[in-house]
Amino acid sequence: MMFSEAYTAAQETAAFVKIDCVKSLEFTGADRAKFLHGQVTCDVQNLGEGQSVHGTYVTPKGRLIAEFSLYNRGEVLVLLCGNPVYASIRDGLGRTIALAEAEMREMQTPRGSLILTGPNAKSLMSRFADLSRVDVVAIPWGGVPGGMLHGDAAVISELAEELKGVPELTEIESEILRVERGVPRWGVDMDGDVFPLEVRLDDAVSFDKGCYMGQETLAHIKNLGHLNRRLVGLKIEGEAERGADVLAPGGSVGRLTSVVDSPRLGTTLALALMKDEAAVPGADLTVTGGLRATLVELPL
After folding, report:
1. Domain count of the chain?
2. What range does the domain containing 32 cover?
3. CATH for 152
4. What is the average pLDDT value for the chain, to the nearest integer?
5. Does 295 map to a domain?
């Protein structure tokens, strides 16, 4: 497995990837922060202008509906999420916003995003003389300093041209980095059956704010200090496939959710949703087909 220029730059300097899978909702009105604060898991009331926060939207029972980033543009709060969860969060918040002095609007023009990742990614922002055309959002993707530029697709294409000399990641390289950094993806590593704390979304949940939908359940899980299952990293000796069972001497203890060839490890790396009691360093684990598996601390 070769180290490409972009893959190396994403860890040592900076690299970028252009994507079109992020959608946005804009919230305005006097009660916009108060409304969202009572609906989602992150702290919205203390989000300063120009700042962003990682959050989730959950059911009354605390199970995941959507993951998102929220950016404070000033008079507007911008919620950014992936295409697969957009309708769920739009429809859910749309049913309750009528009770608040706030409005929610959808963007009508095509949107695009540039994700910059790597230790020097933030300094790249200085290349752009006018960032008023886009939202500059610090997001958890990549797990290292960086951010996302989000705006009209035409503007994003122009900004991508200004990044000449900065390596551009391929879709495969982006996926490898995502798995190496332990970042879950909707419909792959997480769905509506999981709790945020099970899939490494701890930073998206505030336990210091007031009441919100699902708070009681999430607080109970936190206070117990124990999860029934959790998303972990596994180094596998051989070629494995997504969906394969993770086996301990007593039987199946989980399944693989994402699988990549990791240049950094020189072998197969997977994310797996496993029973918590089995996900311990040194555990005797195998994957379907008799492949040995070793727990890996993430992010790499």
Report:
1. 1
2. 13-163
3. 3.30.1360.120
4. 92
5. no
pLDDT at res. 50: 86
Predicted TM-score (pTM) of this structure: 0.93
Q: Using CA atoms, how far apart are residues 94 and 132, in angstroms rounded to an integer?
A: 27
Q: pLDDT digit string (tens) for 45-85?
A: 999 998 889 999 999 999 999 999 999 999 999 999 999 99
Q: Are 57 and 66 in contact (CB under 8 A)?
A: yes
Q: 91-115 pLDDT, tens per residue? A: 999 999 998 999 999 988 889 999 9
Q: Do the domain assignments include residue 245? A: no
Specify burial of residue 161 (Cβ count, 10 A radius: 0-12, 13-18, 19+): exposed
Instruction: Please indicate, yes or no, if residue 67 is contained in any of the structural domains.
Output: yes
What HEC string does the chain produce?
Answer: CCCCHHHHHHHHCCEEEEECCEEEEEEECCCHHHHHHCCCCCCCCCCCCCCEEEEEEECCCCCEEEEEEEEECCCCEEEEEEHHHHHHHHHHHHHHHHHCCCEEEECCCCEEEEEEECCCCHHHHHHCCCCCCCEEECCCCCCCCEEEEEEEHHHHHHHHHCCCCCCECCHHHHHHHHHHCCCCCECCCECCCCCHHHHCCHHHCCCCCCCCCCHHHHHHHHHHCCCCEEEEEEEECCCCCCCCEEEECCEEEEEEEEEEEECCCCEEEEEEEEEHHHCCCCCCEEECCCEEEEEECCCC
pLDDT exceeds 50 at position 260:
yes
What's phi and psi for 249, nearest 5 deg?
-55, -30
pLDDT at 142: 47
- Give the pLDDT score at 285: 97
Residue 190 belongs to a domain: no
